Amino acid sequence: MKGKRFSECPPAYLDLLAQRYDYFADKAEREGARANNGQPLAPYNRRDAARARGWMQRLRNGYKPPAPDEGFSDPEWPDTDS
Fold first, then answer.
1. What residues contact 45, with CB distance under 8 A and at least 6 apart?
2. Which of 2, 28, 52, 75 could hold 33 in an S-S bridge, CB 3.0 to 4.6 Å?
3. Distance from the Cα of residue 72 to its chain's centroid
4. pLDDT tens-digit profile of 8-43?
5. Of 39, 40, 45, which is closest to residue 25 (Cα–Cα)?
6. pTM for the whole thing?
7. Rounded CA gap, 32 and 46, in Å?
8. 3-class SS at 4?
9. CB within 8 A of 33, min separation 6: which ones?
């Protein structure tokens, strides 16, 4: 799933991912780990866990990501491809 957005992942995977982020947050708190900016690392991991759980819930409730755009189109500008 590397390189995919949370909205593109199956809910079961997002649940496991959230558990993983929680584990690393607990570990970071125990060790006093800090991010590159000097802030505690655990809150960042907890936010990622919450994001994964949020997307898991959305997907289980029937959310479908929109289809990708096929290209930029602006109704104000004439189509020059023809």
1. 21, 22, 24, 25, 28
2. 28
3. 25
4. 999 999 999 999 999 999 999 999 999 999 999 999
5. 45
6. 0.76
7. 15
8. coil
9. 27, 40, 41, 42
